[in-house]
Specification:
With about 250 residues, the protein is an alpha+beta fold. About 35% of the residues lie in helices and about 25% in strands. The chain has a single domain, classed as Gcn5-related N-acetyltransferase (GNAT) (Aminopeptidase, 3-Layer(aba) Sandwich), CATH 3.40.630.30. Helix 4 packs across helix 7. The N terminus is likely disordered.
Length: about 250
């Protein structure tokens, strides 16, 4: 009688970006380069140095790095000059064998919850730029308030906030006309064999279809600027959704 292989698992921990040593930076870059074309080690190092925290995803069996996401807190002014904050997630990758797990999403929500608890009355957002539909779905499937979205137009106030934030971070590379970020040269595009969009997926999932329509040159490294609101109730909703999914599978 043979034993079925155990499913690959991940664990997450968050560390200050300044605490990432040379050996870990090397492993992070090699993993990133495996899934993204047109990468550059110097740009990767510069981007990491500008971030506040890094979520590290490791296989607990051998402590090998299998994914990461970089985070930075941005301060800005919203409607009527009201101050608000946004957590900007930068370079993000997960090794293919570990796709579909909730570990990154759970750890990211923890970081957002900590930031929200620090200033509970101040709006907090997730500022996401997406050059791949899987990243867009991570936001769209789990954050009830997110834009842009296929169900309805982005409210003018939210659009002004998104435009201001994207301009603050990316300057002239951001176009408010279509909400896309285009760099003079590609700064990392999803490799063709990593997450291609099939016609079947486009037809079956309106969110994938919407992403491709809004960001038609995503395969060239063009980024779609997105904004999602963090609330204290969001982690509870996320946990409840997971329980319902497991109950349906059971």
């Amino acid at each position: 009688m043979t034993t079925a292989p155990q499913a690959l698992r991940l664990r997450a921990r968050t560390v200050p970006a300044a605490a990432v040593d040379e050996a870990l930076r090397e492993r992070m870059y090699l993993l990133f380069d495996r899934y993204y074309a047109d990468t550059d080690r110097g740009r990767f190092e510069q981007d990491l140095a500008a971030k506040d925290e890094v979520i590290l995803l490791e296989d607990p069996a051998d402590c090998t790095l299998q994914g990461f996401s970089t985070l930075k807190l941005e301060e800005l002014r919203g409607e009527g000059g009201r101050s608000c904050r946004a957590v900007y997630s930068g370079d993000t990758v997960v090794a293919r064998g570990y796709w579909g797990q909730k570990v990154l999403g759970v750890e990211f929500l923890k970081r957002l919850w900590v930031r929200k608890a620090q200033r509970p009355l101040e709006p907090l957002y997730w500022f996401l730029i997406s050059k791949g539909y899987k990243t867009y779905l991570l936001m769209a499937n789990n954050f009830p308030v997110h834009y842009p979205r296929y169900e309805r137009p982005t409210p003018p106030g939210v659009q002004r906030l998104l435009d201001g934030l994207a301009t603050q971070v990316f300057g002239a590379n951001y176009s408010a006309a279509d909400g896309l970020i285009r760099f003079p040269s590609a700064l990392g595009r999803v490799r063709e064999d990593v997450a291609p969009v099939t016609e079947v997926e486009r037809a079956a999932n309106p969110r994938i279809r919407f992403f491709v329509e809004r960001n038609p040159t995503w395969a060239e490294g063009t980024e779609l600027a997105c904004l999602a609101e963090m609330t204290f109730m969001l982690p509870l909703a996320y946990a409840t959704k997971g329980l319902l999914q497991r109950a349906r599978r059971g």
